[in-house]
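hey
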């Protein structure tokens, strides 16, 4: 499901400018785009999302597919179809977090739908899959993937990727297609613009979701650091930040008091397991089944429908 951003902006009376931001010039209050053009601002919100970190592995990945941006996942299907013509594809997922487990589950489902035999391996540097999830969820996802034929290697960091092989601290893994799910990090534009950031490069914000380096710049989502702590990289946080940012943009223009953002202590996220079921996690609770998937589908549908009116 996609939201037509251009339509939303233009129907609301705004101007849509397509381009990638390379610098934010706070002294001039303007954004610089890749083509050299600039977009001025009186107040602005930066919600730039995230990307796979620019590690040596990601930069020299021998044709590896990155899970971010999301459109890259379409390349997995295309590559699998090409590989399946010659032999059973050997697929390696590097990283066993939320993204890695979702990609692994859906890749296994896709192999089945395409009628392809194949081998899928997940290599996770930590001691378990879903390292930030409760123990029950970790056991659930491990059992689910192994029951469907996945080989799960924990405490196995991948050090380099070559043509048809990945090297780890324990040896090598043959692979025809590698998918990098190494976690996510903010884009480099904030550091390039000499704005205050955390260690990962996230724009540092105060309790009003306002940059501590430019009082007219607000932000939310995966690209920011809220009061010197990185919130979980989950959409539920960005969704709740949106109304606060909206109110504070308006308040900044008419010098009204700003609204404070208070992140929720408990939150729900659901992994799509590709077979009509989901793994739902809420605090220390988790449950897997069709009800979890229907809940995720309903939440996503309701969100998208709100912006398609």
């Amino acid at each position: 499901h996609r939201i037509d951003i251009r339509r939303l902006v233009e129907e609301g009376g705004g101007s849509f400018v397509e381009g990638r931001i390379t610098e934010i010039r706070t002294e001039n209050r303007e954004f610089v785009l890749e083509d050299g053009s600039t977009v001025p601002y009186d107040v602005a919100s930066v919600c730039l999302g995230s990307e796979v970190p620019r590690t040596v592995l990601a930069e020299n990945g021998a044709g590896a597919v990155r899970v971010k941006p999301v459109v890259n996942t379409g390349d997995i299907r295309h590559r699998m179809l090409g590989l399946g013509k010659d032999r059973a594809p050997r697929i390696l997922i590097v990283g066993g977090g939320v993204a890695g487990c979702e990609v692994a589950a859906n890749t296994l489902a896709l192999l089945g739908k395409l009628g392809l035999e194949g081998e899928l391996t997940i290599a996770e540097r930590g001691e378990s899959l879903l390292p930030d999830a409760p123990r029950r969820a970790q056991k659930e996802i491990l059992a689910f993937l192994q029951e469907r034929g996945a080989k799960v290697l924990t405490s196995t960091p991948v050090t380099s990727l070559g043509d048809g092989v990945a090297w780890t601290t324990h040896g090598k893994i043959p692979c025809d297609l590698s998918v990098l799910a190494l976690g996510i990090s903010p884009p480099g534009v904030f550091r390039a613009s000499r704005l205050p950031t955390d260690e990962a490069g996230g724009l540092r914000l105060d309790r009003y979701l306002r940059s501590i380096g430019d009082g007219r710049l607000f932000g939310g989502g995966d690209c920011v650091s809220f009061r010197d702590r990185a919130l979980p990289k989950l959409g539920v946080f960005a969704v709740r930040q949106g109304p606060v940012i909206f109110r504070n943009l308006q308040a900044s223009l008419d010098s009204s008091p700003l609204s404070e953002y208070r992140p929720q202590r408990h939150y729900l996220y659901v992994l799509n397991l590709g077979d009509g079921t989901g793994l739902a996690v809420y605090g220390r609770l988790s449950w897997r089944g069709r009800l979890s998937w229907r809940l995720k589908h309903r939440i996503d549908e309701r969100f998208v429908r709100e912006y398609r009116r």
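Residues 56-184 form a domain with the FAD/NAD(P)-binding domain fold (CATH 3.50.50.60). Helices lie at 5-11, 56-59, 73-84, 98-114, 135-147, 189-192, 235-253, 290-306.
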